[in-house]
Amino acid sequence: MKAKAFYIIAIIVLAIGSCQHEPLVPPGQTPDGGGPVDPDPCDPEVVYFEQEILPLIVSSCAIPGCHDPGSAEDDVILNSYQNIMNTGDIDPYDPDGSDLYEVITEDDPDKFMPPPGEYPPLSSAEINLIEEWILQGAQNLSCESACDTTNVTYSIKIEPIISAKCQGCHSGSNPQGSISLTSYSEVRNVALNGEMQDAVQYTGDATPMPYNSNQLPQCEIDLIRIWIENGAPQ
Ligand code: HEC
Fold it and tell me: What per-residue confidence (pLDDT) applies to 7?
């Protein structure tokens, strides 16, 4: 009798358990096409694709006329994890075997990316970050850090966002939208005329920014709003 009751309970428990499957995606990893699942807290040792690599590659490569979906130069589209892995020919754990890494470290100026003269090269810190991401397996990881809304000045909180997420397109001799965002005074002007907040919040008539990509994380949108409300201090 007791054994029978045990089996019945065991079957019920198993049946309930099997209805509560977590998605088959490791914690912090983005399933194809979907948003990040339960992001982990950010670990400084780990390179997070969603926060660090995607914005850098979109802003440096998925520029209109280059590797955005509309232009797809050389059939390379660099606007999402799948496209970066496939058309950027990323070989996990092997930077030198990955086309995308090869062209940003290339000696031959005809093959070097971004095209010399038209766009600034990636910095060595940015190249090292991409190398480290590939060495860690080129995974699609995401993390979540607490939003620190103290010291919202240009140099402490805003410049890092603009530099990572906007300058790839809004710098150089021919910046997108004819808007250069490389100095404090340039960013301040676009901030104080209202265009910047509308563009990152997806409000008003402004074209949503970053162009052709995901909306900024809520924390960064909040920091930009607070900075502008405080008069865009340096
Ligand atoms: C992948 C390239 C790209 C990135 C990254 C990018 N922009 Fe842009 N941006 C553009 C293009 C292209 C236009 C012109 C859009 C148009 O004319 O509709 C533009 C226009 C703008 C405008 C004017 C919008 C309007 O409709 O008046 C602002 C403001 C702007 N960008 C701010 C930003 C900010 C802030 C970031 C970073 C958070 C950013 N952009 C990231 C390509 C980019």
Answer: 60
